[in-house]
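Troubleshooting: if your tokenizer reports a length mismatch, compare your output against this known-good record of 508 residues.
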Amino acid sequence: MGRGRGRRYEEPKLNLKKVFAVIIAFVVIVMFIFIIKGFLTQDQEKGKIVSKDYFAVFQNNKWGVIDEEGEIVIDPSYAEMITIPNSKKDVFLCIYDVDYDSNTYKTKALNSKNEEIFKDYEQIEALQNKDENNNLWYESNTLKVSKNGKYGLINLEGKEILPCEYDEITCLDGVENTLKTSKNGKYGIVNPEGKIILKDEFADIKGLTSNNKDGFIIKVEDGKCGIVDFSGNTVLDAKYDDITKTFGNNFYVVIQNKKQILVKKDGTETLTDGFDEISEILKNEDNGVIYKKDNKYGVMKMTKEIFIEPTYEELKETKSGVFIAKQNGKYGIIDIEKNQKVDFKYSNLSYNEKADLYIAEDENYNNDIIDNTYNIKLSGILTDFDSEKGYLKIRQENEYKYYNFKFEEKRESDIFASNTIFLSKKNGKYGFVDKDGKVVTDYIYDDATNQNAYGYAGIKKDGKWGVVNNKGNVIQEPTYNLDEYLKIDFIGRWHLGKDLNMNYYNQL
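Known-good structure output:
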């Protein structure tokens, strides 16, 4: 068994100050669940198509695993959280025998039969990464393993895809499908299938963006930095003190003698002064860059002509020549001519490129949905936004309503055609109906949730929550107090934990 550093996971506390960021993170999680729900596997014994997901659970201060029907697969008996790198695979990574005095622990992998697998390795770990908002994810089909103190990779079937000959293997911070290897003090890049992208010959490597196809910032032995593409070809010579992650239109922001400089791909210096920092290169090269001076933001052309004076607390381009700006602590929208398109009155303001609309939020977490002509089309509390399915869900006057991106109201059954029960409200109480509108759960509840990807829906009565199944039958009477929980979601009698980023379930 492998030994290394370990930490005990305690059930996390809710941070209400991060409600907006967590809602966005949860939207991503829900989208991910619906996507993986569509991937089916063949049950050879029964000769039919089946699907199953697995989740970590927390009960009585112990961790275990359940399936999507809420059935216990691994009894909650582990002091440390069980990691499930891919919810579609019955590969569960356990940490045990933690010794805090020596900072050591043991690891093992189990399958759904509670059998230990991959026993040839001293240590087995998931490869964890996080984005700029600290949302976590795992490489979904690759594990890091060790033999004789060296690391390699296997897939979730146990096949070795990279031999155990590396000093370390980690995810490249914030970059998907990209692993950073270390050997003899030098770094390289491999993909999750074990293919070598960059040989271990650099003093350090960072991602230029979250997309590995955009290339990598590399550091060579003398400490100088350059850029190479996904094939290892030189994009920018390694002659700079550092390189920022700001780039576009074949322009890059480099640091030389502690000062930022805008250079072309061929190394020609374009902007060298008149700013403290370049934060963004605009989509239209002729419009120049967003720059920072004296802690305020403006727009400067490549000719050093000032388009927008640095008077804004924040400035970010959404579409060519259109900016979300912050002034006096509030957000609004302006264009390249400084024409105000949306008043400066919001606590948060974001743009969704695929839907081509803006999501604004006030200090009470109420939302305005603004179209591409800068008109408010919907107002309420945004609770779901799915770019793939093309809908948004918004709470208006204590009712949840669905709209497509043309702002046409839709029924829940239009959005979720595979669902079997649908939330309905009558005389101020909630119940459920089937596809034909027949009542399957009486209108007796004070609140309720929509059916989730696994067929379950929450019901609330007298301040407590319970669960109905995909037929509308109550499988858990309302007994759970979930006032401190940001999202109500059940699998069987198990409820989604407080920390949505960890994606685990518990029973209260």
